[in-house]
Amino acid sequence: MNQKGLFPLNPVLIVDDEKEILRSFSIALRSESVNNILTCQDSRDVEGLLSRQEPELILLDLTMPYISGEELLSRITGEYPHIPVIIVTGNTEIETAVKCMKAKAFDYMVKPVEKSRLVSGVKRAIELRELRSQVQVLRQSLIDKDIERSDAFSDIITRNHIMLSLFRYAECIAPSPEPVLITGETGVGKELMARAIHRLSGRIGEFIGVNVAGLDDNIFSDTLFGHVKGAYTGAEGTRKGMVDRADGGTLLLDEVGDLNPHSQIKLLRLLQEGEYYPLGSDLAKTCNARIIVTTNRDLKGLRDSGVFRKDLYYRLCTHHIHIPPLRERLDDLPLLLDHFLEQAAEDLGKAKPAYPDELLLLLNNYSFPGNIRELRTMVYDAVGAHRSKILSMKRFKMRMEGSGKSGAAVYSHHAMSPGLSFLSGKHLPTIEEATRLLISEAMKRTRGNQSMAAQMLGISRQRLARNLKTMQSSNVRPSSE
């Protein structure tokens, strides 16, 4: 969707010497929301049109006076190889079709063309070109190592290389009018990324966020599109919706994976047509907001199961950013811990406390189901209860044990050491061998800290000590490196 509500962003150029064909193809495409169309009845005008405005794709007839379609195809694919050309002709000769495909035509259709065949071919060409464009943007973002506007990401604390590559990608797509899909687990910072994209976009309108989870269709429509006076009982005056409030800015729809089917249809229309109707109104209004959606659900899985519309899915993921969970960016833990300690101390009116080295070790071995938001909560709780010079680990351990998991289950699944790869092999160790391997791994991960190793294994420290003593007497040295 662009500022004028046209789809696609650049026009679909239809070239045919028959006026009725131009008309029927235009009607067929417009009926399926492909409404940015340019027609040409004289083949001599095509190259001039291309020099003035580059189309998204071209529907090209072969048999035309002046310049034939085959000759035009050769010129277009030579000078504009990135523009898909779909041949639509009455010529049924297989040799001609083969010749056109060798000349790099995107598709070949024989008249009369069924509407569904025409529309699906056009949409497939548009989607492929958008995908190629996105790949190019991503490639360029990875090549250009420097982040130009680091200030836009000041709310996101990181030095992780994956996150920095996402920053570069966000900078590249920020000016685009197309939707952005931001995925990731709860608490990873999806809204912070959306706000950063808004800052980078240069849009002068507001950033408006709406959580659409659990909204029925009527509330969804009223929230987004507003209503006019008398639209329903109790509608005593006109009220603007969030789309209107985000005019010229960015509209964030949070938890879009929970959107009900009826509301999905309305969102799809908003994206494709760039228009919407306030409740009770027959007059369409134009949407000039950039749409960003977020979800912590597997949207692709919901699409495949039929819960989420396929056409809406493909419209939303023109630009896709997936934010990794905290357990996959543990190199950020020291930065985040220091940041939240300083923030919590300031908010709670306390001096910033020091913390024991074992705290980072403890956090590094935790799975963080609530991600960065959970870490922040842990730190605030610990600082709130802090009374001595060194920050106690007690509150952190209580939070971990109260997360719905216990013992070894609260710890993150690091890559297994070679000694633990027996699960994928044919040979199973004895119970004694497995016990030694697990103890060695726990001691390695905790750098020799017996209390933490015991907690990781879900046993008492006394039992661990007995096992270590047995291993030492058997000349089995546990690793603590």
Provide a descriptive summary of the structure in words.
The protein has 481 residues and is of the alpha/beta class. The protein folds into 4 domains: 12-133, Rossmann fold (3-Layer(aba) Sandwich); 149-324, Rossmann fold (3-Layer(aba) Sandwich); 327-410, Helicase, Ruva Protein, domain 3 (Orthogonal Bundle), CATH 1.10.8; 418-473, Arc Repressor Mutant, subunit A (Orthogonal Bundle). The chain has 19 helices and 14 strands. Strands 2-1-3-4-5 form a 5-stranded parallel beta sheet, sandwiched between helices. Strands 7-10-13-6-14 form a 5-stranded parallel beta sheet. Strands 8-9 form a two-stranded antiparallel ribbon. A hairpin with an 8-residue loop joins strand 11 (275-276) and strand 12. Helix 13 (333-348) packs across helix 15 and helix 18 packs across helix 19 (461-473). The longest helix is centred in the N-terminal third of the chain and has 29 residues, at 115-143. It is elongated.
What are its keywords?
481 residues; alpha/beta; Rossmann fold; Helicase, Ruva Protein, domain 3; 5-stranded parallel beta sheet; 14 strands; 45% helix
Classified by CATH, the class of the largest domain is: Alpha Beta
Q: Give the name of the CATH architecture of the largest domain.
A: 3-Layer(aba) Sandwich
Low-confidence stretches: 405-409
What is the approximate shape? elongated
**Total discrete domains:** 4
